[in-house]
Amino acid sequence: MSLDPGALRSLARDLGVSTDFWGWDGTRKQVADTTLVRVLAALGHEVADDADVRRIRGDRARAAWAATLPRVVVLREDREESLAVHVVDGTPVDVEAILEDGSRRPLTQVEDFTAPYDLDGTRRGQASFRIPRGLPLGWHTIRAHTSEGAHECPLVVTPARITVQDGLGDRRAMGVQAQLYSVRSPRSWGIGDLADARDLAAILGVRHGADFLLINPLHASRPVPPMLPSPYLPVTRRFTSALYVRPEDVPEFRDLPEHARQRIAALRSEVSPANARADRLERDPVLASKMEALEEIFAAPRTPARQALFDAYRAREGRGLEDFALWCALDEHREELPDRTREELASPDSPAAQRARTELADRITFHAWVQWVLDEQLAAAQAGAREGGMRIGLMHDLAVGVTEVGADAWRLADVLARGVGVGAPADQYNQQGQNWHQPPWHPEALAAAGYRPWRDQLRTLLRHAGALRIDHVLGLFRLWWIPDGAPASEGTYVTYDHEAMIGVLALEAQRAGAIVVGEDLGTFEPWVRDYLTERGILGTSILWFENDAAGNPLPPEDYRRLCLASVNTHDLPPTAGYLAGDHVRLRHELGLLERDLDEEIAVDAAAQAKVLDAVRARGLLDEDADPREDVEATVIALHRYLAQTPSLLVGVSLVDCVGERRIQNQPGTDSEYPNWRVPLADQDGEVVTVDDIAASARTARLLAAVREAMDAT
């Protein structure tokens, strides 16, 4: 039987799969039928012919009527909602909301004239109930009492908007953006860690009046080398990489016998010479040395109080932590396992996995302990930032997704889609598109899980955060799904219930007292930014990309207030390199351009000239200044221009503070460029440490200029 393209495309749209989209070049593009078929299969709907289309539609209608309650209800505190309840036609039903505190609120039934539905010979009727506005925020339960028994579903009441940022008042906040791993001190183990974050935040807060320190994602990697260098390709987004631990700061370190302390000192001495390297960071030896050091410290007895705190941490993080620790214990010897054993361990609920929980109990405890130690050091870093005068403190970063083979892909397999990867369609900076090879949330499975996996991840991340940046926040509305083996251009958008995704985010951020910043760059529908603003989520504005309708640089006064404004981003070179056109030449060398190099350079130079002319027009840069020669003066001028905006948060990249020129990450590449492996260095290529920043005149000049310009606005 044939497959009617019209029926296929209609079904795809009904299931939230886009059949066309607007490209970066302003043209509307149609999605191939083959892509739609493969994406629908990843959603669990195999479509080979018209009969499959009819079957899928029928099955979905039947499932909706067979369920007494919806999978989950997420609503805003300031809105009421009608709840549809399905029962045997003509039978009574009572519905109540059971709140977090145990109190009960009966729901009022309202008129519903929906016709009954014949479900296998049984007439199913629909009754509607009003969920009132004004319920307290939180994770509640709806319970329906019917002749068939009691039925429940989660009820999540979310804030109308996040209000944490209102606490900043009229005084806007200035902060610094840093790739933490690249910022070392003489006390580091070759990689910047949480102790360095604590010290850097204190220095920036006390010496320069900074209010926040935005750092790269600290998500966990494998517990053993080799590890992927990208902080945006973790094995889990919930827990933290041991790479960022400072072993000497673990309280039990002080009580170690001398031979153990000497052993740890020897481990550090093997990797600490890398602190002086300016060419490249090497994570694997650092991770291996730190894990050995942690083994020594873990073997030391804990006081009853310390053990109680560890027990409390394990209880709080629950099954998610235990599954992650089990995955780490298994991953330590994964290469040694026969294929059959790997297949038996394919699920954390498999009999083999249950046996492993007993057999590897000590290793599971060790990996859970490592996370507890990291949690304590995250708390210390945030405390140090606030003690240094930062009003916000650490701003953590949430990556888009996780690796295809990792802890989250294993323990959350039931809420992730298979057979596809997340990426991005072509844009002006990546004209071939991108495939990040990350399994996306399965929209329906996540809803069926009551959005708890999303909630649990957020709670852990927000526990020691003054703010959270959401990388590619547009992914909470839609994600670009690419069928396995297909090029990035042969994908399509799959939509999510943004009311639920954003609602859960708003609830957890409000409860944690954290500001939320969404990276809303790239291709998006115009209403999305308005929606994020309405919910109290700050956007992202990058100086080079902010243009008015005529394509001219946006005047400072026309910038959004609710946003984090900065001159650049980690996917662009530092300003010194950007002014020199390094990003264009690098993309040409790597074969990422579709236009001729000279044409691309000319286009980029013209765009830069427009921005620099706008800066000169404000009297911030001398008319005869050569941006490539007078780099520091140009960097200061660009930041002063940005400081004249009303933007609530203004971010200054640490690389611009010290004169670094090299890019940290070139999107669209893997091994072709040393992404995420560039240590912090100055304009002369000399390593810059945390301690150097405390005495850096260049850093002081830039941050003082930004602060003064913001105060004058």
UniProtKB/TrEMBL annotation:
Keywords, comma-separated and alphabetical: Carbohydrate metabolism, Glycosyltransferase, Transferase
InterPro entries membership: GH, Glyco_hydro_77, MalQ_N
Pfam families: Glyco_hydro_77 (PF02446), MalQ_N (PF21226)
Entry annotated with the keyword Transferase: yes
Catalytic reaction(s) noted: Transfers a segment of a (1->4)-alpha-D-glucan to a new position in an acceptor, which may be glucose or a (1->4)-alpha-D-glucan
Enzyme class of the recorded protein, top EC level: transferase
EC number per UniProt: 2.4.1.25
Annotated MalQ N-terminal beta-sandwich domain residues: 69-159
GO molecular function ontology, one term from the record: 4-alpha-glucanotransferase activity
Keyword hit for NAD: no
Stretches that traverse the bilayer: none
Family matches, as Gene3D superfamilies: Glycosidases (3.20.20.80)
Family to which the UniProt record says this protein belongs: Belongs to the disproportionating enzyme family.
Protein name: 4-alpha-glucanotransferase
Organism: Brachybacterium halotolerans
